[in-house]
Specification:
By secondary structure, this protein is α+β, with helices and mostly antiparallel strands. Helix content is 37%, strand content 22%. It contains 22 helices and 35 strands. The strands form eleven sheets. Strands 14-9-8-17 form a four-stranded mixed sheet. A hairpin with a 2-residue loop joins strand 15 and strand 16 (339-342). The protein is elongated, with a radius of gyration of 41 Å.
């Protein structure tokens, strides 16, 4: 019988999204602290271990991807292959977990060849981590047909040595790679003293160690804070050498990239080229990637005669503006017991060591059980050798294997035909175990040879020694720690590599701003939207030049263009001058100018309502923040606030602080309606409609509002009417041929008077 269940749709969708988010967090994006691997990485490595060994021939990546996808990871083949490639790239991992063969890309960003062309096998280091896998926990795969490991038991915290990057739902991880030897020493230090502090651990782990080398620019306090909390920022910088480029020229060679530049060396060179074109690196004469199999070399050649001081300035610009120094955000977010947790260094070692104890305990319990079985079998075989004649008699007198086993195990002689009567009593004394009995029945006659008996005795002796050793390890924490440390020391001898990244506190890079000599200019804009900048003295000699707007500015200023659709556009005067000079180096006042649309995103259907100097709208905008702060404190309540008045075609008006429109955005909204007037506020606001109705209102009646506000009603419009012109002025001004002193001021919202 069908049942219809009523559920809350919002609640059900919310729960489904939570389930999806947790799946992405725990099963895809974040590494597990116990082995430092995401599920796809663990499955790729396990699949590789089934197909290859570190000394076997490489296998096609298509086969590896297919096996991983079919057995363990039922997702897209591209994500599996990408994971395989990343595990093989030695510029991402200091010690790769996959040994590649073929084109696996390069540090400049070239991608790997298709999986049908490339080959791979498991690396020796990853194979080392799989040695104890048989003692670890396994779980069913997605369809229950295979078993896969829950974790891979690396001998040191792989999350630190291999790092991790991933974006989940609502969280992310970004764990830098570290030097294997340093991590191993830190793990040993933690084993010896679980109460060790983070600061003490940093005597062993100096900081991140990236595969690309470079310089990590950070102070000691910030480094401690990162490893205490698992969060923080550090700056990574490329390593540079100054080389002789021949013909008296020098070359700045980037020999080690900052880790953040992986895959974007071409972008770096293009940025340097742009800086050269902008005139910020006038000494640079050539840019090239001269890297080869011997190492990286992004070369920036400077002209002959460039001094060391000038080269230092060039380097500072490269660090600051070209990405040769960049920020690396550390976020050591990982999975611990199926929950995400941001961990510091000590917490990582604590949770990893906890897992390590589980692995070692399971390993030596299994080994102890195995050796006890060996002892049981070997001692049984040696006992059997002593009574071999009786055993042969039992076997010859037994009708079935079952009868022989029962006799050897329990001394049952009822159905056995003995050759000698005295053998019956001896047979009844036999009490071999089942394992011993099976070994006796499977024993070959050659074991009776004297030398073979000696071998059995030696094997029994070895088993006894191993049992004693394993029992000691399981009973004594000190002995187990000693074994762990010995294993880590052995790993260090095999795989430790020198540190690549240098850690220095180099401070903040300072690029001296070039002193720009400000010149007096006049911006001219005509009714066809052509804009140009003329030297003010030239304009003053030619006052009759055709224009709709003119505005006196300095060459370092910015101008604000208010259009009829309520948008404001900010344009640098220097941008107009640059484009103007590029078009024609010799300026003439009669030049047509450049279309305003090349400088801003003004709509082609809009008209220009006003043009203003941003420095007049917001005088504090040209000062640095500290100067402004001091000025505000000194002149609190004394500095007048500059307001703008907006009048819309719908008969609304608003006042707003002019400083609100001094923004870094090139285009923003000033008001949400079409406008006919923008200007600095004065005593009155006067507006006239298309049907000839006029109104005069005191400016103070219009409230000061925010940037996005729509204003209040200035004049109530009759059906089909709209405002065509407006102004904010005092009584001495004229408006559309009428002296304002002759107009009577009324309350806002009136219908106005007809001329």
């Amino acid at each position: 019988m069908e049942q219809i269940k009523t559920i809350d749709y919002e609640e059900e969708m919310g729960q489904d999204y939570v389930d999806y988010a947790m799946s992405v967090i725990t099963e895809r994006a974040l590494p597990d602290v116990k082995d430092g691997l995401k599920p796809v990485q663990r499955r790729v490595i396990y699949s590789l271990s089934e197909l290859t060994r570190s000394d076997s021939p490489h296998r096609k990546c298509a086969r590896i991807v297919g096996d991983t996808m079919g057995k363990y990871h039922p997702h897209g083949d591209s994500s599996i292959y990408e994971c395989l490639v990343n595990l093989a790239q030695n510029w991402k991992l200091p010690i790769p977990l996959v040994d590649p063969h073929g084109n696996f890309g390069d540090v400049s960003g070239s991608g790997a060849a298709a999986m049908r062309y490339t080959e791979a096998r498991i690396s020796q280091y990853a194979e080392e981590g799989l040695k104890d896998l048989k003692y670890c926990e396994f779980m069913p795969n997605f369809d229950g047909t295979e078993q896969e490991p829950v974790h891979i038991p690396f001998l040191v915290p792989n999350m630190l040595t291999s790092g991790a990057t991933g974006i989940a739902v609502g969280m992310a991880t970004n764990i830098p790679t570290h030097n294997l030897e340093e991590v191993a020493d830190a793990e040993i230090a933690y084993l010896q003293n679980p109460k060790i502090t983070t600061e003490e651990l940093l005597e062993y782990v100096k900081g991140p160690d990236f595969a690309t080398g470079g310089i990590i620019n950070i102070d000691r306090e910030s480094l401690i804070q990162i490893y205490e909390t698992g969060l923080g920022k550090l700056r990574v910088r490329g390593k540079v050498e100054i080389r002789d480029a021949g013909r008296g020229r020098k070359s700045i060679c980037v020999t080690e990239l900052p880790y953040t530049m992986i895959g974007s060396t071409e972008k770096f060179l293009n940025t340097v080229a742009d800086l050269v074109r902008q005139g910020k690196l006038p000494a640079v004469v050539d840019i090239a990637d001269r890297g080869d199999k011997d190492g990286e070399c992004l070369a920036i050649d400077v002209k002959k005669g460039t001094t060391d001081e000038e080269i230092e300035k060039i380097l500072n610009i490269l660090y600051k503006k070209a990405g040769l120094e960049d920020t690396y955000s550390v976020n050591m977010n990982c999975i611990y017991n199926k929950k995400p947790e941001v961990m510091g260094l000590r917490r990582i070692l604590e949770t990893y060591t906890e897992y390590k104890w589980e692995v070692y305990t399971a390993k030596y319990e299994r080994l102890l059980a195995d050796q006890r079985d060996v002892r049981e079998v070997k001692s049984g075989l040696l006992e059997a050798v002593d009574v071999i004649d009786l055993i042969i008699e039992i076997l010859r007198g037994s009708a079935t294997t079952k009868e022989a086993k029962e006799c050897l195990m329990f001394g049952k002689t009822d159905n056995i035909k003995f050759r000698y009567k005295g053998s019956v009593a001896d047979a009844k004394e036999l009490h071999f175990t089942e394992k011993q009995t099976d070994a006796i029945l499977a024993m070959r006659l050659q074991k009776l040879i004297g030398l073979e008996v000696d071998v059995l005795k030696k094997e029994l002796e070895d088993a006894e020694k191993k049992i004693a050793k394993y029992e000691k390890l399981l009973k004594s924490n000190a002995a187990m720690k000693k074994q762990m440390i010995a294993d880590i020391e052995e790993l260090k001898k095999k795989y430790a590599i020198p540190r690549r990244s240098v850690i220095e506190n180099l401070g903040e890079v300072v690029v001296e701003k070039e002193k720009v000599v400000a010149t007096e200019e006049t911006i001219l804009l005509d009714r066809f939207f052509y804009i140009k900048s003329a030297p003010r003295n030239v304009f003053e000699k030619n006052p009759d030049v055709v224009r709709k707007f003119d505005l006196n500015v300095m060459s370092t200023d910015r101008i604000a263009i208010f259009d009829s659709e309520g948008m404001v556009h900010i344009i640098k005067v220097s941008d107009i001058l640059k484009k103007q000079n590029k078009k024609d180096k010799k300026f003439r006042i009669t030049d047509k100018g450049i279309q305003i649309f090349e400088f801003c995103n003004m709509s082609h259907t809009a008209d220009v309502v006003a043009m203003m100097n941003v420095s007049e709208m917001n005088p504090a905008g040209n000062m640095d923040s500290e100067t402004v702060k001091n000025l505000v404190e000194q002149c609190r309540g004394m500095v007048p606030e500059y307001n703008l008045v907006f009048v819309t075609t719908e008969g609304k008006a608003k006042r707003a602080s002019a400083a609100l429109f001094d923004t870094s955005r090139k285009t923003s909204q000033a008001i949400k309606s079409p406008i006919v007037y923008v200007g600095f506020e004065d005593e009155y606001i006067v507006a006239e409609t298309n049907n000839g109705y006029s109104i005069k209102v005191k400016t103070e009646e219009i409230p000061v509002q925010g940037k996005g506000a729509g204003g209040v009603q200035l004049i109530s419009l009759r059906r089909g009417d709209y405002v065509v012109s407006a102004v904010s002025a005092d009584n001495s001004a004229e408006f559309n041929g009428i002296q304002l002193s002759n107009m009577k001021a009324v309350k806002r919202g009136g219908k106005g008077n007809k001329k």
